[in-house]
Amino acid sequence: MIVMKFGGTSVGSAERMQEVVQLVKQTATKSCPVVVLSAMSSVTNALIAGAKAAAAGNFNDALRQVDLIRAKHVEAINAISGGADLLSEIEERLAELVVTYKGIAAVGELSKRSLDAVSGMGELLSSAIVARIANAQGLRSQWLDARKFMITDDSFGRANPVWGELVPATREALMPLLEQGTVVFTQGFIGSTRKGVSTTLGRGGSDYSASIMGVAIDADEIQIWTDVDGMMTADPRVVKDARVISEVSFQEASELAYFGAKVLHPLTIKPAVEKKIPVRILNTFRPTEPGTLIKDTVVSDDIIRAVSSKKGITAIFISTPKMLMSYGFLAKVFAIFDRYQTSIDTIATSEISVALTIDQTESLNEIVRDLSEYGEVRIVHDVAIVSVVGRQYREKSGIAGRVFASLKDVNIVMISGGASDINLSFVVEGANADDAVRMLHGEFLSQGGQSNPLSFVIPSGSEESAARS
Ligand code: ASP
Ligand code: MG
After folding, report:
1. Which of 54, 323, 419, 425 is deepest in the core (most CB within 10 A)?
2. Alpha carbons 180 and 142: distance in angstroms, whole number
3. pLDDT tens digits, residue range 136-155?
4. Local structure of residue 147 (DSSP, 8 states)
5. Ligand 1 centre distance from Cα of residue 372 (Å)
């Protein structure tokens, strides 16, 4: 059994959707896949923009977003044959959207719950069209509303799977169809609470949906079809001779996904690791490329596998003489971040100070206020975490030395390394991040300075990765 997930650019037009159906049909000759779809590119953004406009009292702007969304889907439907009744289905959903916008406008406030109800609509629309194309082409298939089985908690905007209920519900919904050879088309990104309230897994969360479903049905492979050739040694927009990495381990992929390689939603790997289900990243625009296979163990001689950077990070420095020779200080600091549900990405400590980085700043003011009780707090905005993912940092000597020696004229704000054997991370000023990545790639990964033989292309905007940034 295979889960095939297609991102927003992969379903960005009728033509792309037809291509998706071709790829699904090819797979269906061997096994019966579950197809997980994103919204058409830019639709989720438009849905959210409309909701914000409605909340701000600009109802006409909200309606303009509805028109944009309608136009995009109608164009796709008109380009396929036999979609007339789909037009009325789309209109029904858009009417529902307008009602929700009206509700938001009436209260003049956008709750996370309403935002989830709105932002998940794009997946329902896109999947209906793709399923119809498949049907028209004679593929034995069935459209399913993922909210019937993707049971989550009520952390709107970033809901978590409730495994105990999600697994049996998913199996019950999918297995009978798959067993009789019916391809299932469903949505990524969305779920619902036990009580049936719509939720989303967070921006770019369709990958995560695919891996959750893969785990629930015990899939043999989870395929993430996107708009790039795979995980790369560095961001090709920054490093000209960045290369696709053909195989990476779960551990390496998690570090990379979290620390800047936006090809995969960071949580995607998490469920797959436990069941050791391989995740394959493939390019819908170049389906014959081998992509990247993420699996349990990988053999490689490379000391450094990839360099990435994550920008828009905030560094927080807390220093206090009170910490000298005392205990319990870190626990108090962590408790504050816990209170505001803000996760810490990297950390470094000395006897009287702690430095750490976060990427969610919604509660920064409250965090600073609470931290100030314990010491002096200094904030540095717009820093970047540079991560050098490699292997055997502990076994091989001299790697860290080479890493830092290669960074000419880059001021290092903070160093955090050694917690994992495979990731050496440090923080630089945002403006230096690209240079740092280029210098490190040049030192460890460039092959004789020749340009990338794959002549890598990112389709316009590479919107899927934008959704994750
Ligand atoms: N459509 C959603 C987003 O743009 C989910 C996804 O594409 O993965 O964030
Ligand atoms: Mg998307």
Report:
1. 54
2. 12
3. 999 999 999 999 999 999 99
4. G
5. 37
